[in-house]
Write a structure and sequence with these properties.
CATH superfamily: (Glycosyl)asparaginase
CATH class: Alpha Beta
Shape: globular
Oligomer: single chain
Bound molecules: N-hydroxy-L-asparagine
Distance between the termini: 49 Å
Strand content: 15-25%
Number of helices: 11
């Protein structure tokens, strides 16, 4: 009954993809298999958080967590909502292309056992977080890039599809007139989705997925698929995810840093603030770019912080899904 209710509010397609399966016909069997059977130790209040105001994505993950799905299942299904949203020009299908007109996607996932998977520079595949899960679960590797990752997707049953929409193509052609490379990462230009889930068994997993910076150089990869930078989970401590100027996040290994700061006693909020301060103090140009972090600890406490005002985190718990306005290092 519960499951039927859920299906009325969430696309079965998204659920299937989130669970790492490829066809609707399989969904019923596979979801039963994925759904935790034991309810004896499901005492925790489930929490889902994500970067930016991706309300539906976070609600999707939250609803799955409430039903007892694992954090990994929930976050991959959650981020799939944005990967499939063609209006979002920074994630998945409809993402902005590189400067040569090719949409290349990056994603990673990490689970509560410390296992992780990542794909970089993938073309023609929408659900790259689910593909990163395939790398994690079905291969002996952690990272796969480009054509190899795409081939894994096809043999795993993912659809090959054109990711460049007419709208993104039009914007790219407009950009070509000046070819002025100025990454704008703000609230209007909805960005990378990083999502962290704490499930009812108290386990934390995360996913991060993006089309990267618009009009990047061919082959450029940002922080989002880099374990430790765009995402890091240590199930004994907590998890963190990043959005913004990937080059700056990578230089400070931002998400790993936040988890280590929490290990040393900081709250998620304090740890996010310190990670932003590391970037700001080491880079005099910090006024020219945005970086934002979200974090969660084992108790389900969360935090978020950014350089420029305008960043929001979505927070789901106890059936309430609400935006949280992040504090910022710069005040205007
Ligand atoms: C990147 N961090 O590729 C991503 C872009 C991003 O919000 O987060 N935009 O560098």
């Amino acid at each position: 009954m519960k499951r039927r209710n859920f299906i009325t509010t969430t696309s079965l397609n998204t659920l299937a993809v989130g669970l790492g399966i490829s066809s609707l016909a399989q969904a019923n069997t596979e979801t039963k298999k994925n759904k935790r059977l034991s309810t004896s130790n499901m005492n925790e209040t489930a929490v889902a958080i994500c970067t930016w105001e991706f309300t539906k994505a976070n609600a999707t993950a939250g609803a799955l967590l409430d039903q007892g799905y694992s954090a990994l299942d929930a976050v991959i299904a959650g981020v799939a909502v944005e990967e499939e949203n063609i209006k979002n020009t920074t994630v998945g299908k409809g993402g902005s292309p590189d400067r040569e007109g090719n949409v290349t996607l990056d994603a990673c996932v990490m689970d509560h056992t410390g296992n992780c998977g990542s794909v970089m520079c993938v073309e023609n595949i929408t659900n790259v977080a689910a593909l990163a899960r395939k790398v994690m679960e079905d291969t002996p590797h952690v990272i796969m890039v480009g054509k190899g990752a795409e081939e894994l997707a096809i043999t795993s049953g993912f659809n090959s599809e054109k990711l460049l929409t007419e709208e993104s193509e039009r914007a790219w052609k407009e950009w070509l007139k000046t070819s002025d490379y100025k990454p704008i990462i703000n609230i209007e230009n909805h960005d990378t989705i990083g999502m962290l889930g704490l499930d009812k068994e108290g386990n934390i997993s995360g996913a991060c997925t993006t089309s990267g910076l618009a009009y990047k150089m061919k082959g450029r990869v940002g922080d989002s698929p880099v374990i430790g930078s765009g995402l890091f989970i240590d199930n004994t401590i907590g998890g963190a995810a990043a959005t913004g100027m990937g080059e700056e996040v990578i230089k400070t290994v931002g998400s790993f840093l936040i988890v280590e700061l929490m290990r040393n006693g900081m709250t998620p909020q304090e740890a996010c603030e310190e990670a932003v301060h590391r970037i700001v103090t080491s880079n005099p140009n910090h006024t020219n770019f945005q970086v934002a972090y979200i974090a969660i600890n084992k108790k389900g406490e969360t935090g978020c912080y950014c350089i420029h005002p305008g960043f929001k985190m979505m927070h789901y718990s106890n059936r309430e899904n609400k935006p949280v306005i992040a504090g910022s290092f710069l005040k205007s």
